Amino acid sequence: MKTIFEPFRIKSVEPIRVTTRDERKKLIRDAHYNLFGLHSDDVLIDLLTDSGTGAMSAAQWAATMRGDESYAGSPSFYRFQKAVKRLMPFRHVIPTHQGRAAEAILFSIFGGEGQKIPSNTHFDTTRGNIEASGAEGHDLVIAEGKDPQSAHPFKGNMDLALLEAYLLENGDSVPCVMTTITNNAGGGQPVSLANIQATAALARKFGKPFIIDGCRFAENAWFIKQREEGQGARAIPDIVRDCFAVADGMTMSAKKDAFGNIGGWLALNDNDLAEQARNHLIRTEGFPTYGGLSGRDLEAVAQGLAEIVEEDYLRYRIRTNEYIIERLDALGVPVVKPAGGHAVFVDARSWLPHIPPLEYPGQTLAVALYELGGIRGCEIGTVMFGIHPDGRETAAAMDLVRLAIPRRTYTQSHADYLIEVFEELARIKDNLSGFRITRQPRLMRHFTCQFEPLQA
Questions:
Q1: Could you tell me the CA-to-CA distances from 57 to 40, 240, 260, 305 in Å, in that order?
Q2: The domain 21-50+310-453: what is its CATH number?
Q3: How far is the CA of 92 from the CAs of 98, 252, 273, 389, in angstroms?
């Protein structure tokens, strides 16, 4: 069928406050042109992130009612632990309040001055936690992953030749090897099962632990099922288990592919590393059977892990992104192809060629989307990745705008409205001008930096 069929019914609704274009121009100016600074009730369609912004199911809400809030040994923890281990067969599962907390604990162990941590592509908070420890993060994605128009089915793959050369050159300084699934910063592109297994084998050859950032593991498994030879007849949970069976650990934000509004975990196989992690957890998050989460949150995540691997949901999820990308492509809007799992990525550098990378074409496009249509997206480009620990600024590999689709939150009419906004934006895009940064923090500047337009 041509119609995208949402495999759910809507039981509760939240009203959207409809603003005018003049209102939005003032609101974004007052926020110093940083979309993170907007009040969410001033946004019509919020595509800033898919992290924690999805709608929980009736079964999840029911599960929260049996949440046990005991400080230690809550049955909610053991249901959560069982749900994780059903898909990710790690020896130790350590809950945290979200994914970046798991990263902070991991890099308290693996980070530090002089350490170098390779990945396909580190996302912003991962890189921020690495750099905050004094270490360096390096991205080794395949060349196709840097080409928005490449049709490669697994553009998130690690470049194995580059990784081997990296390990030969920096072996003593490398505490672990990482892979992110899907590759968020590279357009939500998947990593093949073969590449995950080959990366794990290479890490093992050099005696390095292999860690997966698994935030969007179910979407990645769906792409493996659809695109990788020999995987089409397999069940999603079986593909997921194979992905993690070769890893020594994982970080996870349960706010993505676990349908949680909050939550995460760090999972490890090594007993000594797990003990270090739990000690850090107790200091910063909470006791190891709650890790900064309420019992009801643990219950919601446990139920969400059962729902996220349902094929009807995953088919609808990916098809929604494909639909938007097909429509934007027909309008001549350059988008990252093929469709990623959790977001539509617009190639702002290609669409606004008159704006140089150091004048932030991604930020320009993101601001214009809000002013014109009340849509909040996120720059994934030189603002996010252009600044170096020593203060130097260079153009990022790509200047993208990510339109992250919250899970089970918006309908096809919202998608059609988004496309109409791009139709209008196409008429004025050549008149847009860039921005300069007037204030920024040392790390992860995109969250709180302030901008001003180069032309009034």
A1: 22, 22, 10, 12
A2: 3.90.1150.10
A3: 17, 13, 10, 33
Gap between the Cα atoms of 104 and 107, Å rounded: 5
Q: Is 452 left (phi over 0), alpha (psi -120 to 50) or beta?
A: beta
What is the pLDDT at residue 456?
66
> Helix, strand, or coil here: 165?
helix
User: For the chain, which residues score pLDDT lower than 70?
Assistant: 1, 456
- Each domain of the chain, given as residue ranges in start order, spans 21-50+310-453, 58-307
Q: What is the pLDDT of residue 203?
A: 97
Q: In whole angstroms, how far apart are CA 111 and each of 16, 65, 114, 267, 420?
A: 43, 39, 8, 17, 46
Strand partners, 393: 387
Nearby residues of 76 by Cβ (< 8 Å), 6 or more positions away: 66, 67, 68, 295, 296, 298, 299, 302
Report the CATH fold assignment for 58-307. Answer: Aspartate Aminotransferase; domain 2 (3.40.640)
Quickly tell me which residue has 């990263």 as its tokens.
103
Query: Quick one: pLDDT at residue 184?
Result: 83
